[in-house]
Amino acid sequence: MFFIVLFSYAHTMKWVSKIVASGAIHGKLGKQLASQRALHEQLKLLLPTPLDSQLKASVLQHGRLTLFVASPVWASRFRYLMPQLQRQLQQRGIRVAKVRTAILPDESKRAARIKEGDQPVLSQEVGRQMRQLAKTIEDPLLRDALLRLSRHSKQL
Fold first, then answer.
1. What fold does the segment set 3-112 form as a domain?
2. 110 - beta bridge partners?
3. Which of 2, 69, 72, 149 has the smallest number of Cβ neighbours within 10 A?
């Protein structure tokens, strides 16, 4: 139901809030959105600095809380706090059976890093060597993988 978290959380929440406020969506979705937003804000208040700023999104579904963070480094830091966070939520009347982290990378930063034309390219010689090597490989999967990689070489 909450596919919303797969996109930029802040941007998506503003967009969804506008739709809900406009009256286009009513009832259950509006209540769930408000509930998820309130939970997210509570979580941010419970987290110490700088973890509070690294929580990108959160979803509580069927007693399972998923915390979305930007990188594996932050995910490991969150894992240390999970038992404490789970107890704090239970004290506030929020039943959480399991807490996990998931990575939600910042797509705007990724897009800035990988611009068109910035893709790594193999030299022409390396491409030729990979094609020659592929001819000697019996395993079809490995052979095909090498041939695909060799296509990234500079062409004359």
1. GMP Synthetase; Chain A, domain 3 (3.30.300)
2. none
3. 72
